[in-house]
Amino acid sequence: MNLTKTLRWFGEKDTISLPEIAQTGATGIVTALHHIPNGEVWTKEEIRKTKKNIEDHGLTWEVVESLPVTEDIKKGTELRDLHIENYKESIKNLGEFGIKTICYNFMPVLDWARTDLSYTLPNGTEAMYFGMNEFAMFDLFILKRPNATLSYSEERIKAAETLLKSLKSEEKEQIGYNIIVKTQSFIDGAIKEGEKDYLRLFNELLKAYDGIDKSKLRENFSFFLNEIIPVAEKYSVNMAVHPDDPPFPLLGLPRIVSCEEDINWLYNANKSQNHGLTFCSGSFGARKDNKLPELFKKYGDRVHFIHLRATKVLPNGDFFETEHLDDDSDLPSLMKAIIEEQIKRKTIGRQDIDIPMRPDHGHKILDDFTRETNPGYPLLGRVKGLAELSGLEKGLKHLLVDKLN
Question: Which residue out of 242, 275, 304, 363 is catalytically annotated?
Fold first, then answer.
């Protein structure tokens, strides 16, 4: 009974290779067919080629991350039905090849957001940071989103104005580029690297969500679930939605997987065991009211995939990605809850005991500074996290030996 250790790999264009990952202690790969445009079918031939490539390096393809849900599905446009049918076919094809876990998200426009991708920590390593004033400044004065002032307090607007005056033009541009392009392009985002008119294009994407509030987005999500989950059940595939990152509204867009109330709605929207959650401690942890061990204890029976990282939330609401075992994150208590969930599953005869887990993101450390990698995905920083989490798991299992036996 062990968590299945995995690392995310971004395909042949990833600067980190499968032979390197095979040396890290990970046995499984989390990946996607990034070369297939969003909304199109993942064919059996393309799945077969990727699966064989992974297995030829002594690894297994454990989780798809992500099978993208198109903006047309999220918005409920006239293309929704076609894209959902293609999605069903992709689930079927993956299931027939024995790939049983699909991570996806239902976040409008932005999959995740950070304002600083190289925040330097006291020990010289680099992390990713989300600054509230920086994001407000971007929204109000760089993007110039219509009615953006309605999203912020007067105090926040004044702070954003002050910050705007203190930055050089290239620093302002970098923040916008980080948010719109740098963090999105490598995960099948709508705006790719090199796009010069990214601000205008991004505003158009946001405008397409006019009139779609939290209630409407939930309605569209529920429709999607009720269409795809019967296919997931038929082919023994677990669908694991990723929480919002960060877990609060941005840019006037609704968020619907951010807190306990959202998880409760999510589980009731479709009660199939094949419909569940990717438990991302870093995303949920960016809200102080999300108590991670308690959330896992309550909703862990439908957690199909786990992302483990630590988030330090500052008094002003800013947050950054801290050490995996930072005392503030209390990942040991979360790991204990995860092991106890595994014990429950084993006791009642469930087969999905060895839940796939990956160390989500990592600091740039040591030789990571010599290699260009996707934001949040350096090699050595993630390997350090994997080693720490593996040791934590083994130590806690030793203390829980009576329960395990």
Answer: 242
